[in-house]
Design the sequence.
């Protein structure tokens, strides 16, 4: 719904200057800037926590977040904001990363919380959530995709660089949707803790994947997936 033709009311087209006016209005609605989306998977956390508040980062997880923060800072980009899942492990990862990016505002959202986005195809035997989860989580994660992954607003003049700190399932689903791949294939992708996935959204709405799950900036003994 950000295609220029969808943003104007064709019924209001002036009868005399029709084509010229339409071209002018279309041009006014065209995006000018490129959006750079950095999707960060949270660091390693304590899997034995009974509630979300108990699933805090492990000492290794905190090291991973430091390494990710340093990597992002080293890119020399002017980041606009950090949007993160409200779950504990994502919030803690964000706090550590943000120390390396002073002045970048942080926004928490429930939309990016972990969940079951869509039933995977082919199915897997090691992970079978209740069917209701796909309906509850799937609608929310799809809403996150529609809310955050889109071309720049026509009013945006400069390219933007945004960080999203969330979870493996959410990132994998978003990547499939953004690239127009069958979303049921999300579980075929694998992401390390603290990894960086870089999507680029051009003004015409085309999406490119620059990196998927990059952890090349971490020493091998610091890399985990759980």
Sequence:
């Amino acid at each position: 719904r950000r295609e220029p033709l969808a943003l104007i009311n064709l019924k209001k087209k002036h009868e005399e200057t029709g084509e010229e006016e339409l071209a002018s209005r279309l041009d006014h609605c065209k995006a000018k800037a490129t959006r750079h989306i950095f999707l960060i998977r949270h660091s390693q956390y304590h899997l034995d926590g009974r509630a979300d508040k108990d699933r805090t980062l492990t000492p290794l997880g905190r090291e991973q977040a430091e390494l990710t923060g340093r990597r992002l800072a080293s890119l020399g980009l002017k980041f606009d904001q950090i949007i993160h899942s409200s779950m504990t492990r994502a919030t803690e990862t964000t706090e550590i990363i943000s120390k390396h990016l002073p002045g970048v505002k942080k926004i928490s959202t429930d939309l990016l919380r972990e969940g079951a986005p869509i039933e995977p195809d082919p199915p897997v035997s090691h992970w079978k959530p209740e069917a209701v989860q796909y309906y509850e989580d799937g609608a929310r994660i799809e809403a996150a995709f529609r809310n955050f992954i889109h071309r720049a607003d026509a009013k945006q003049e400069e390219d933007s660089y945004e960080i999203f700190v969330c979870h493996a399932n959410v990132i994998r689903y978003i990547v499939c949707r953004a690239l127009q791949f069958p979303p049921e294939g999300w579980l075929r992708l694998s992401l390390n803790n603290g990894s960086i996935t870089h999507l680029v959204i051009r003004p015409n709405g085309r999406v490119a994947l620059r990196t998927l799950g990059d952890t090349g900036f971490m020493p091998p003994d610091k890399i985990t997936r759980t």
About this structure: The first strand starts at residue 35 and ends at 41. The longest helix spans residues 131-148. Strands lie at 35-41, 81-85, 105-109, 160-166, 196-201, 207-214.
